[in-house]
Amino acid sequence: MSRKFQKLILPVLLIFSVILAGCGSNVAATVNGQKITSQQLDEQVTAVKEFYKQQGMNLEGPEAAPMLEMLKGQVLENMINQELVYQEAKKQGINPSKKDLEKQVADLKAGFKDEAEYKRFLAANGISEPKLYDLVERDFMAGELQKKVTADVKEATEEDALKYYQGNKGQYTIPAQYEVRHILLSTMDKPGGQAKVEADARTAAMSVLSQLSQGKDFAALAKEKSEDYGSASNGGLYTFKKGEAVKEFEEAALALKPGEYTKAPVKTDFGYHIIKMEKIIPESITPFEQVKSEIMASLTQKAKEEKFTKYMTEVAGKATIVNNLNKGKEDTKKKE
């Protein structure tokens, strides 16, 4: 399954799968009498923790406790909102057909490499085929409710887009870029004492400078000598904007004019660099015509989201919602 697809679909499925899970004895919240149990909440929090773990964020241990508590509250609010949307969709008579659901499942399957990967995904998340159809049904109903509620939202015009473009030029400004070549003599992950590693790398850098002073081609030397293997194969070519390179590298590079190279090795945490400025690509602004359609679509979507959020806020205001997690916090504060 593509990583992008996984990021889009997994949180949605996790939320709905927990709402559909079996009942527990303790109630975390109720939405118009429909229970969300503590067990369901704990399962959802565990699933979300695992999801974040896959993204490189660890929520285990004492230090993560405050963040985990905040996450728990956010997860419960999300579950409450999802239940509200589902109930309102049913109230509005939104009932997807079997054909609708089959198409949604087929689209979901298309995001996987093959049937085996799809099956592994379901198994890993404890989702059976019947449950999957329940999850997809809820997701479909939420989407159809939003379409119904926002059907009268007018499409943004070209005039609207131009007004936004002119008031937000910074979003469409491409900062100046610096195209350089560099040769790195690395001091990282080398055997021997650090002092010797540093001395050897600097000596190698001075040798490169000597060859450049004798007229050796910079790109050819980069291919031969550079230990930055990500750029060595293309002659050390590297393009960056301000703030993207390490401080020492950036300062040395920006002090050069096109065609010039550093006359002394530039020391960074990575080792010693010889840097040559190839060219400076000036700051530019993306023309309105290139982003017009994108802005119009974005403004229309924003208007729809605002309309739907307002609508669901009104629905929530009329609903009977009991959030026992918040109630517990309030009781604790009173005791303090």
TrEMBL record:
InterPro entries per record: PPIase_dom_sf, PPIase_PpiC, PrsA_foldase, Trigger_fact/SurA_dom_sf
EC number annotated for this UniProt entry: 5.2.1.8
Coiled coil: none
Signal peptide (from-to): 1-28
Domain PpiC, residue spans: 175-279
Keywords: Isomerase, Rotamase, Signal
Reaction catalysis annotation: [protein]-peptidylproline (omega=180) = [protein]-peptidylproline (omega=0)
A GO MF term: peptidyl-prolyl cis-trans isomerase activity
Pfam families referenced in this protein's UniProt entry, alphabetically: Rotamase, SurA_N_3
UniProt protein name: peptidylprolyl isomerase
Organism of derivation: Desulfocucumis palustris
